[in-house]
């Protein structure tokens, strides 16, 4: 049994002020494997105070030195790769291979921001055109200050790396709240942070739910900026709370991403990309390509190929070799997806996907393709967060682009086309933050991540991800006479 009733503040585990705890589940065995504190506003006060105390020294630590700490965090995670992947797989239900992929992404992210920290050091004090004769100007970038970071459960260690690594590189100190659903892998970060030699108070980690930690953190006046990944309703609450004190927010929210397929696309490649886009992590991806827009000439063949692939999936124990789809993360998430399947019946949607044999235990749902779904359907418009794909046939690229853009969300898209120039021309017209043409959903740390419309505000990863934690400063001086 894992008992997580302590908070990581000032490089030490201290008892939470909360009495109440939440059960921690293994979603395959449907078994309670521990409990986690719900957290308390007093825990938030203590963590914010620690982060504020640590800020002046950390802000003044040379960028290159901060980069060394980030390298050490990457090394600490790498040394624990096997055990951590297993823990993450057990806690989230994702197949072990996917948990390994998460670890590799997180490690690469800390390493990348180590180099970005060094590059930031070189950027500081650059001469800038003054624009006025007899004046000189220089540019600097100051850390935003103490940042509040809140993450969901679907990519533990990755969502946190995308926030922690650039925030630390920038010189911010951090109060980090991981999801209460997958706290087990995240809590290991505390060990890694100590081992990496970070001074007390630079990283504080608070376990708890929205009520115990999330809401008090987003209301706390001691936080200078928030970076939130999660659902739209909660993102809006964080933004409202941040309005008090005019604190900036970065939001990575939901999606209902399209995959567009032209008539000359390779059928096998298309089927692979469709399957990865909707079945990876059992479809629990903000960037899941859950709306398929396929040219009418290819539609029937593609539908048949997808149905065959879905029927051939091997759902099973996350830690077992050969499992290619795990359970959903919780009973709540499974019930949510099943409500959409019941709604599909009421809406009269058509699916020919053969039922895949599901294990007797675990929060599994049957993967399903719905054919020729009307754009008015709630399944077409709302984020389902499970292996449920809605498809429509289109007459040409114009119709596909118009339907793709007819969404409240604008996170990501995939285009599959025989002609790469045509794929890119389509991609240019999509109202989303990321488009993959004829390839998987790759997101190396050098790239950028985030969405348009209701999918959020700002971008993570790349230099833009670092700049999100920096305040540009310009110093203009009259030249000595
Ligand atoms: P969620 O919004 O329920 O929870 C996210 C985090 O917010 C959790 O840590 C939760 O405890 C916390 N929280 C809850 N109430 C809060 C409050 N009032 N104030 C502050 N924090 C609060 O989301 P979830 O169910 O954990 O994750 C699924 C959602 O996340 C999906 O909508 C998905 O699209 C989105 N997501 C987006 C991205 C992206 O990059 N755009 C990535 C992953 C997940």
UniProtKB/TrEMBL annotation:
KW Hydrolase (keyword) present: no
Gene3D superfamilies the record matches: Aldehyde Dehydrogenase, Chain A, domain 1 (3.40.605.10), Aldehyde Dehydrogenase, Chain A, domain 2 (3.40.309.10)
InterPro entries documented for this protein: Ald_DH/histidinol_DH, Ald_DH_C, Ald_DH_CS_GLU, Ald_DH_N, Aldehyde_DH_dom
Any one GO MF annotation of this record: oxidoreductase activity, acting on the aldehyde or oxo group of donors, NAD or NADP as acceptor
Alphabetic keyword roster: Oxidoreductase
SUPFAM superfamilies per record: ALDH-like
Active site: 252
Ranges of residues in domain Aldehyde dehydrogenase: 13-474
Top-level division of the source organism's lineage: Bacteria
Similarity field: Belongs to the aldehyde dehydrogenase family.
Protein name listed in UniProt: Betaine-aldehyde dehydrogenase
Source organism: Halomonas ventosae
């Amino acid at each position: 049994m894992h008992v997580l009733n302590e908070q990581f503040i000032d490089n030490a585990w201290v008892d939470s002020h909360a009495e109440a705890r939440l059960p921690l589940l293994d979603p395959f065995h449907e078994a309670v494997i521990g409990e986690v504190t719900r957290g308390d506003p007093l825990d938030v006060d203590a963590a914010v105070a620690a982060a504020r105390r640590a800020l002046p020294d950390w802000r003044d630590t040379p960028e290159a030195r901060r980069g060394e700490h980030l390298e050490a965090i990457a090394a600490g995670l790498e040394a624990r790769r096997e055990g951590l992947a297993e823990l993450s797989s057990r806690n989230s239900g994702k197949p072990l291979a996917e948990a390994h992929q998460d670890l590799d992404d997180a490690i690469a992210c800390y390493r990348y921001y180590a180099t970005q920290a060094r590059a930031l050091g070189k950027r500081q004090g650059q001469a800038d055109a003054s624009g006025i004769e007899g004046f000189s100007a220089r540019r600097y970038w100051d850390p935003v200050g103490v940042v509040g970071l809140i993450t969901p459960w679907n990519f533990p260690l990755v969502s946190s790396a995308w926030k922690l690594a650039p925030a630390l590189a920038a010189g911010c100190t951090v109060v980090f709240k991981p999801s209460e659903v997958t706290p087990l892998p995240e809590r290991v970060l505390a060990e890694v942070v100590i081992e990496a030699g970070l001074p007390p108070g630079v990283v504080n980690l608070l376990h708890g739910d929205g009520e115990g930690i999330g809401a008090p953190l987003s209301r706390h006046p001691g936080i200078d900026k928030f970076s939130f990944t999660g659902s739209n309703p909660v993102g809006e609450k964080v933004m409202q709370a941040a309005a008090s004190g005019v604190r900036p927010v970065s939001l990575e929210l939901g999606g209902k991403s399209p995959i567009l397929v032209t008539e000359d696309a390779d059928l096998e490649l298309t089927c692979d990309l469709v399957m990865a886009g909707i079945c990876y992590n059992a479809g629990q991806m903000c960037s899941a390509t859950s709306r398929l827009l396929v040219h009418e000439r290819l539609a029937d063949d593609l539908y048949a190929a997808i149905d065959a692939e879905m029927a051939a999936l091997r759902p099973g124990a996350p830690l077992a070799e050969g499992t290619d789809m795990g359970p959903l993360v919780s009973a709540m998430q499974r019930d949510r997806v099943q409500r959409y399947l019941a709604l599909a019946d009421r809406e009269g949607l058509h699916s020919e996907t053969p039922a895949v044999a599901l294990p007797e235990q675990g929060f599994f749902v049957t993967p399903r393709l719905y054919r020729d779904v009307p754009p008015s359907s709630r399944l077409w418009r709302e984020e389902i967060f499970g292996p449920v794909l809605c498809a429509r046939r289109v007459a040409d690229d114009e119709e596909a682009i118009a339907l793709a853009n007819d969404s409240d969300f604008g996170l990501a898209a995939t285009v599959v086309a025989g002609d790469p120039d045509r794929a890119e021309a389509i991609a240019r017209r999509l109202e989303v933050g990321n488009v993959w043409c004829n390839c998987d959903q790759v997101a190396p740390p050098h790239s950028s991540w985030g969405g348009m419309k209701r999918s959020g505000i700002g971008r993570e990863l790349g230099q833009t991800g670092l700049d999100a934690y920096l305040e540009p400063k310009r110093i203009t001086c009259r030249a000595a006479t």
